Description:
The structure holds two protein chains of two kinds. By secondary structure, chain A is an all-alpha fold. Chain A has helices at 4-18, 25-50, 58-76, 80-101, 107-127, 129-132, 150-172, 174-184, 186-191, 196-222, 232-245, 250-266, 271-288, 295-303, 306-316, and strands at residues 138-139, 224-225.
Amino acid sequence: MRGLHVYILLAAAALALVFADQLTSYWMHVAIIAMFYGILASSWSLLAGYAGLFSLGHMAFASIGGYASGLLVQWYGIPIPVGMAAGVALCCALGGLIGWVCLRMSGPYLAIFTLGFAEIVRITFATEDDITSGMAGLHVERLFDTPSRLPYFYTAFALLAVSLLLMGGIVRSRWGLFLRAIREDEQAASASGVAVARFRILVFAIASGFAGLAGGFYGHYLGILTPSLGGLDLMAVLVVMTVIGGIERLPTAVGGAFAVEFLLEVLRGDDQWRLPLFGIVLLLTMRFARNGLLTPVWLQFVRLGEARAAATMASRDVPQKDPGR
Amino acid sequence: MNKGAELIRGAGLIKRFGGIVANDTVEFAVVEGDLVGLIGPNGSGKTTLINMLTGHLVPDGGRVVVRGREMRDQPAHVYAAMGVARTFQLTQLFGRMTVLENLLVPGLTRPRSKWQAVVRRARNTLDFLNLAHLEQLHAKNLSGGQQKLLELGRCLMLEPAILFLDEPFAGVHPHLRDELIKRIQELHEAGRTFVIVDHDMESILRVSQRLVVMARGAKIADGSPAEIRADQAVLAAYAGL
């Protein structure tokens, strides 16, 4: 039996789907972009929060996924979903490769290495005019031939839901336990029988694949891709979203993405102050709530149905996996 | 207890750090049922030897053989899979994971392990170590002695053939130290093989059947506690002569 919080979330999701058409075009766009960031924040949480691999190259993989899909569709006329799948596969392979190269790196070394990788990707996309159209932007075929944003809303919703289900499955399985063990102490994890190198490569590949999926959708939604997608600015936004929400849990990372994206739009009138404001919120979060501002809220929410679920689990002698994940 | 087959052998092990020779052609073997105390002054190369025998350091020379299989540059998790478990000089737990989760990690790395069965075994292990009441606490919140016990529990979850305990009694309250010794003796009587490194001579002499002494990166003595007590080279090493 699932906790009450699961039913509340399912009801909220159903309401969002039923009443989505009531949103204005502008707010529907905001919601779609928030879901795009939701996939990125949750997959970055898997990498940085669960496995402790603080990569700054996550947006570069979104960019690679987007460009790969856009170019493959343009060159070979393949269906867009096939192009997106190819982008995901490429990102998985490249992510695994980066994970392998970075096997002995952690902390600031890993961050600087992946930042360097991201800059190489951004500059390559910016300068290879013949292929990517450089800073002018690559025109990408749109996913749906309609001016309405509603099909994109449903698609983004489905992609986010499937991503969360898959990543949720990983973090609640023994793999999730092993990733957290690696984050805590690689040497002890290895002494406990965890194949540390294999799992580090694997989590890099998986997280990069989800970033590529988000990037592919983004390109085929907007119809244009620029190298700035993989730049440090958007990576900083992603870090802010994930850290403010809560980096060590998928739902709080997604909540952070939604909250920051929403607030960025609400505060758009105070243009010069809205970005420094998020910097201040980030500083305060790191000082006073390292687990993120939404983590206590989420844990309280989960406790709503915990007693019932715990009673059921105890009666079956089922292991107590952390329901907050 | 009857001695059985050879579990692990380090043959001619050499390890250098820069210009310092931490282990100089060390021979070390443990057979089933042994309870070996590995002693020596600070810097004599005991931990380096353990690190090489458990896959945490690659030797510069010599070879490690585990249960008849030569381990050529194998990572530590392969050693763990072959039944070689270890604790660390400075306790290394998964601090922000619960006590129960700390035991689930090694248990779930075992082939064909089932989650529910591993949880049951982890709880049995916690019962054995008197830590059952702490199972939902984060490991970082345990006392030093409890952390040592939990680290021992993590080793046991690997169902190991041999356990290397690196300074298990260091900084542990005497009451918990006695409990730790009791658990080690119970496990040994049940058939586990141990190699224990420590400076606490009283504890080492209480538990060990065989002592190996190292000094300046070399093995200088190997024998029963009585033989070691009478060994002039050992006395010289400890007296700094």
